[in-house]
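TL;DR need structure tokens for one chain.
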Amino acid sequence: MAGFLDIFRKKVFSSLPGEDRGVSESKDIDDRIALGVLLWVVAEADNKFLPEEEEKIKEILLSYGDIPEKDLPVVLGSIREAAKERIDLFTFTREVCQNLKYESRVKIIENLFRVAWIDKDLDNEELEVIRKISNLFRVDHKDFIKSKEKGHATFCFICNKFFLRNSITLEYLI
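>> reply
TL;DR here they are.
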């Protein structure tokens, strides 16, 4: 029986024009598929999917996922479709864990926090989805906390750049 990743992989590859990838090459994209789907699930967790969240997902997929920019619309469409199907996180993460190294799982958790923080608020729903995924990925609690801190640090860095670029001071905000 084909698993979620097999079905999703076929869907993505059949959408790419002129692409002829082998099975071994397609297995290499499992972490990218998992990353995209899980990012989308977290972005939707608070019931307010924002354009900034989609932009952050694109940014993460382009940098961490090594997805060519020309393929991004197809991959995002497939991820969006998969997220609509309301994947069973237990089944999905169990399948994903089989092929991912621990470091890759921790990196996914870090990126989930980056998307969750992009709207300037880590909602309880987002935190609980990330916590659930982290537990299902068997990520140690200390690495979960480090990932949360890295996600927040990225958010703070972005805010600082914005404030500096727009000459906004703390006194102005108070």
